[in-house]
Amino acid sequence: MEALERYIHDHTEPEEALLQELDRETHQRMVAPRMLSGHLQGKLLKLLTRMIRPKRVLEIGTFTGYSALSIAAGLEEGSLLHTIEVDDELESLAQSYFDRSTVGEKIRLHIGSALEIAPTLGEEFDLVFIDGDKREYPAYYRMLMGDEGHSPLVHSGSILLADNILWSGKVVEPVVARDLHTQALLEFNRMVLEDERVENVIVPIRDGLNLIRIK
Questions:
Q1: Stated pTM of the model
Q2: Residues ≥6 apart with Cβ < 8 Å to 7
């Protein structure tokens, strides 16, 4: 498998120098660097963004900014990415890389709860990347779909990308009562599957990506 993974990396568009630097710094400074999207997923996000051609994008969970930079690299001129991070200690690191990037002017970083901030942005999003607190995934979905008493934040044709949807395989293992992360992801996946307003497919890249299209 190691040789196959190396082949995949070697035959995928090379990682930009700035993203390589961000990857290294994230691994040096962060307690959980595996939260970073990384080369393959970053390229997938960039290509999907180019294909979808969104004008307005929402990212829930910035971390150190790798995925935001990848999405922004796929955006056309005049398009904008709003990215929301709950941990204010990550703000300066992510913003420093946004400032150094040639696509940084397409990114607006917000610090706080996505459940509180996203409805106040006054936008309807063509693309949403969900990578925040796994325990809040069902609440994110209800918020985006307009099931929380406010207008929907997405429309027919919008694409939702939910990351870490397989949670290291825990979604198919017995779930302990205190494991709120796995319980929430199971609920999220079930909500999506049973929602007639959407169509979806789970792609087993890294920790699983649920691709959802609003009908």
A1: 0.95
A2: none
Cα 15 to Cα 32: distance, rounded to the nearest angstrom: 21
Which residues, 6+ apart, have CB-to-CB distance to 2 below 8 Å? Answer: none
101 in Cβ contact with 18 (< 8 Å): yes
Q: Which two tokens stand for residue 202?
A: 């789970």
81 has which bridge partners?
57, 107
Long-range contacts for 130-133 (Cβ within 8 Å, ≥24 apart)? 130/60, 130/61, 130/160, 130/161, 130/162, 130/163, 131/37, 131/59, 131/60, 131/61, 131/63, 131/67, 131/162, 131/163, 131/164, 132/60, 132/61, 132/84, 132/86, 133/61, 133/86
- Is 49:57 a contact under the CB 8 Å cutoff? yes
**120-172 residue pLDDT tens:** 999 999 999 999 999 999 999 999 999 977 899 999 999 999 999 999 899 99
How far does CA 35 lie from the centroid of its chain? Answer: 11
